[in-house]
Amino acid sequence: MREIKSLAELKALVGTQVASSDWISISQERVNTFADATGDHQWIHIDVERAKKESPFGGPIAHGFLTLSLLPMLMADALHLSYVKMGVNYGLNKVRFPAPVPVGSRLRAHLTLLQVDDIKDGAQMTWEVSIEREGSDKPVCVAESIARCY
């Protein structure tokens, strides 16, 4: 985990890859729990036997939005802004899912700081987050994530 101790230190990192998270595993249980939480029970995610037979991916895959929902956890694992009292998600500019996430995959995030803007009582950061699947040459998710810290 990379620790950033000041806003000035953060601003000096604009345009660079700042940190990477540890690997996490995507289990069928995690996919099923996400399906239950969101109501998205499409068979390519939760019906293991059917997905093995009929899916072009050869088995069940994680929801794209499950992968996206991991951003806060992966970012917190990769980076700590020790000078910040509170942070909030502000939104996303762009999200793409260039490759599937087969159940059983391991993922990690790479964080590149694109921009830091001063706001009242804090700063707004724009991050490019690229989520990598172990053994794949394409990212499984690329997103511009905007966060505010105070």
TrEMBL record:
Pfam families assigned: MaoC_dehydratas
Domain MaoC-like: 13-129
Highest taxon listed in the record's lineage: Bacteria
CDD domains in the cross-refs: NodN
Protein name: MaoC family dehydratase
Gene3D superfamilies for this protein: Hotdog Thioesterase
InterPro entries reported in the protein's UniProt record: HotDog_dom_sf (IPR029069), MaoC-like_dom (IPR002539), NodN-like (IPR039375)
